[in-house]
Amino acid sequence: MGRKILLEHIDKPGIDQIESYIKYGGYRSVSKALKEMTPDEVTEEVKKSGLRGRGGAGFATGLKWSFLDKSTDKPRYLLCNADESEPGTFKDRLLMEKIPHLLIEGMITSSYALGCNTSYIYIRGEYMFILRILQKAIAEAYAKGFLGKNILGSGFNLDLYVHPGAGAYICGEETALIESLEGKRGNPRIKPPFPAVSGLWNCPTIVNNVESIAAVVSIVNEGGDEYAKTGIGKSTGTKLISASGNINKPGVYEIEMGVPVEEFIYSDEYCGGIKNGLELKACVPGGSSVPILPKHHLLYESNGNPRLMSYESLSEGGFATGSMLGSGGFIVYDEKQCIVRNTWNFARFYHHESCGQCSPCREGTGWMERVLHNIEYGHGKMEDIDLLWDIQRKIEGNTICPLGDAAAWPVAAAIRHFRHEFEYHVKYRNRVFDEDHVYQPEMKAQLV
Amino acid sequence: MLKVTIDDISIEVPPGTTILQAARMIGQNVPPAMCYYSKLEGSGGKCRTCLVKVTKGSEKDPRPMPKLVASCRTGVMDGMEVRNETSPEVIDARKGVTEFLLINHPLDCPVCDQAGECKLQDLSYEHGLAKSRYEFKRREFEKRDIGDKIQLHMNRCILCYRCTQVADQLTPERVHGVLNRGEVSEISTYIEQAVDNDFSGNMIDVCPVGALTDKTFRFKSRVWFTKPMLAHRECTTCSGKVTLWFQGSEVLRVTTRKDKWNEAEAFICNDCRFEKKKTEDWTIDGPAHIDTHSVIAQNHLPFELPVVQKNLPDAL
Amino acid sequence: MTQTEQITFSQKSMEEMDRIILQYPPDKKKSALLPVLHIVQQENGNWLSTEVMDKIAKILDIKPIEVYEVASFYSMYNLEPVGKIVIEVCHTGPCMICGAEKIIAHIENKLNIKVGETTEDKMFTLKTVECLGACGYAPMFQIGEQYYENLTIEQVDNILDSLRKEKEAIN
C-alpha cells in the first residue's frame, strides 16, 4: 500500500463533521501556522515541498505564491478552483464530499500564508450538493473559531465563501474563473497582467486547485522536506487519480507519484485490470485534454523503461510518444472501443465549451467536430484526415487561453497513433451501419 | 525609451507601447488588427490576426516567447525583437485565422454596404485561400431589428466586441451585448429593443465588417462611387468634425474622420451622422485624404493629372 | 417594465439573496449574479424569464443586458420553460464508453421524446450534458441537485417512475 496523505482518514466515521475531523488530527496546520509560523515561513515550506499545481498545468505552487504582488495596499484574494470539469476527472469532488474540512483547513492555512482576509471556493454549479456540504462545514469551522475574526487569538481574520458556477468548463481556466466570480461571462482574460498582480476585482489573486490546497495541510504539519520525500524526481507527494472507463475498479485512488502505469492499471489495489477480460487498447492518462496513448506507449517510455505515474514520466518522449499527467483523469479504453468515436465525442465537448471569444477556438472547434462526425458516420474522405490535422495545428498555440490547445491535442494524438482507424472509417464507411443506416457500435467494434 | 526591432527595423518607443503600436509608428510591416481599436479601452486580443513571433523577449531576458503573441496586447520590452511578415510561422498562423474568420462568413460582399471599406475583405485578399475547405452549412442567425438607424447583420459579425465597448464607453447605457456562447455567440439586445442614443452610431464606424451598417445609407450607393469630403459644423454634442460622402452634390452618408489605421479621429453624435444630410448643414474643409490602399482611391489619384490637352497640338 | 414590477420572490429567496450579496464587497454586487440566478431559477419553475432577469438587474444595480449576457452563457440556466423534471444525461467520453448512449436511447423511447424536448404533459425534459464529474460511476444522470450513478436500464425506469409519482402526488 502506498502512502496516503490526503485520503488517509477518508473511511473514518463522521469525518465530514468537525469533531471527528479534529479527533483525527484536523486543523493542526491552522494552529501551527498561525501560532508558530510567519506567513513567509508557510510559503517557504510549500516551496520546499515541490508541490505542483494539481489542476492540470503542474506549475509549482510555492513559486506561484511568490508571484503574489504584496507591494500594494489592495486586498489580496485566494480562490480555490473547484470547477472540476475536465472529462475523466472527479477527484476534487470526492475530497470535498467526504472530507470537506481538509479543503477548508487548507484554505485557512494558505490564506494566512498569502495574507488574504477573504477567500472564495469557486465550485461548478452542477456540484450544488457539494456546495451545501462545504457550507455546512464552513459554518462548523466558524463556530469553532477557525474562521472569522482573530482566529485562535492570532489576530488573523478570514472569511471564506463558496461561490457556484453555472455550467461552463472554461471557468476552470483561472482568469475565466475570476470573470465568472465577478458575475460576468466566463471569457478568459488576455494575459498579462497575471492574476497574481491583477486578478479578482483587479486585486492580486492566487487561484489554486482543490487538491493543491488540501496538500498544503500536510506540508505545514509535516514540513515541506518531509512531503518531498514521497514521490519521485520533481513529482513530489501523492496524486489523486480519477480512474474511469473499461476497468474493473473505477474510482479515485491516491497514489504515490512514481507508481508504474502497468501496476496502476492491473493491480487489484487500483484499477484491477480491464473489464470483461478484454485487452487494453489505449488510455488518456490525464483528462480529456491530454494526448491519448496506445498500449505500448502508455506502458513504456521511449527508451523501453516502464512508464510511471509522474509528471516527468508521463510526458517523456514529448507528444510523439508521450502524454501528460494533467489533472489525473485516467480514462482506459478496451480493445472494442472506437478511437474515432471517442475523438469525435471529445471534439464535441470542446466545441460545446468554447467561450467564443477568439476566432481560432470559436470557429475551429466546431469545424473539427463536424469533420469528425462525418468520418465517424461514414461520410468522410481521406483528405479529411489531413484537413483535421491542419485545423488542430492552426488552433494550437494561437488562442487566448489553453482551451484551444486542449481541443487540438486529443485530435492530433488520435491521428498520430490511430490514423489507421480513421482510414478504416473512410474506406469501409457503410459497414458500421445496419440496413436502416442506424449506427451499430457493436458491429464496428468487431471490424476495427 | 525602449528599443524594439520589428522585421529588422528598429524604433524607440515610450514604456507602455504595444508591439502593434510600435509597428504603426514604424509605418510598415504592420500586423492587421480586426478587433483592436486604440480608442476603445480593453479592445484587442480576440481576433488573433495580429499574432507575431517574439524571437527575443528583451535585453534582460533574451529568451524567445514560446507561443505567438497578440501584438495589440503585448507590451514592448527594451531590446525586444519581433518577427511579423518575415516569419513563415506568423504568416501561416494568420492564414489560419483568416480561414477561421471566413468559414462561417456569408461572403455576401456584392450586396454588402461595407464592401470596399471592409477589413475582412482586405485580410482575405492578403491572407485568404483561393478556395474554401469548409464543406458545411454556414452559420445563420435570426434577423434582429435594433432600431431605425443601425442595421445589424449578425451573419457577417466576427465578434470583435468593439461595438459593445463603444456602448460601454461612449453611451449612457448599453442595451446590446454578446449573448450565448462559443460558435453561436451573437451580438443582440436579447429582447427586441432599439439601440438608440446620442453616440450609438459610432458602432457602425468601429465595426470592421458589414455587421453594423448605416440604415440611412442602405443600398444608396457603393462606397467607391462616393467622394469623401472633410467638413465641420458647430455641434453642442460632439466635435462636429466629420467626413461627408458625396454622390454628385448629394450627401449620402456622414461618418467620423478616419485616420491611417481606419480608426475614428473623434467620435461623432447621431445628430451629425443621421440628421445632417444637407450640404448647407456643413462647412466644407476640403477633400479627405484617401489611402492608396483603399478601393475608393481608384477614382482619386494622389497626384494631379498632367494636362494632356495643353500639349496636344504639339503632339499632333 | 410593469411586468417586471409584478415579479416578486419569496421571503426565503430574498433573505438568501441578501446573505449572498454580503459575501462580496459592497460595490461588487454584480458578483452575486450567478448564485442569485440559481435561486430565482429554482423558484420560477426552473427557468429564467426576461421579467425575472430584469428584476435581478434591479436588485443587483446592473443593466439588464448584463444579466442576459451571463444567463445565456452558462448551460445551467434555462431561458425557455422546461418540464417539472429535467433529466440531464452525461454523454461525454467516459460515460459514452460505459453505455450512456443506451441510457439516452432508452429514455427517448420510454418518454417518447428526443433529446432537448419536453413531454406533452410537461413532466419531463430530456437533456444531454457534458461531463458532470462522475466518470468513474458511469453511466449517470443528474435530476435537480441529485446525481444518479452506475445506472442500468431497470434503475432508470424505477427512478423516473417514482419521480413521476412523487410529482403527481404533489399536484
Give a written overview of the molecule.
The complex is a heterotrimer of chains A (448), B (316) and C (171). Chain A is an alpha/beta fold and 448 residues long. Chain A has helices at residues 18-23, 28-36, 39-49, 61-66, 91-98, 100-114, 128-143, 174-181, 210-222, 224-229, 261-266, 295-299, 311-315, 318-321, 339-353, 359-376, 382-395, 403-427, 441-447, and strands at 77-82, 118-123, 159-164, 205-209, 231-232, 235-236, 238-245, 251-256, 280-284, 293-294, 329-334. In chain A, strand 9 and strand 10 (293-294) form a beta hairpin. In chain A, helix 5 (91-98) crosses helix 6 (100-114), helix 6 (100-114) packs across helix 9 (210-222) and helix 16 runs antiparallel to helix 17. Chain B is built from seven helices and 13 strands. The model of chain B has no long low-confidence stretch (mean pLDDT 92). In chain B, the strands form four sheets. Chain B has a five-stranded mixed beta sheet, sandwiched between helices. A four-stranded antiparallel beta sheet of chain B has the order 12-11-10-13. Chain B is 19% helix and 19% strand. Chain C has helices at 2-6, 11-21, 33-43, 50-59, 64-71, 93-97, 100-111, 153-170; strands spanning 85-90, 124-129, 141-143, 146-148. In chain C, helix 2 runs antiparallel to helix 3 and helix 4 (50-59) packs across helix 5 (64-71). With 171 residues, chain C is an alpha+beta fold. Chain C is 47% helix and 11% strand. The chains are: A alpha/beta (448), B alpha+beta (316), C alpha+beta (171). The B-C interface holds B 173-181, 189-191 and C 50, 63-66, 68-69, 72-75.
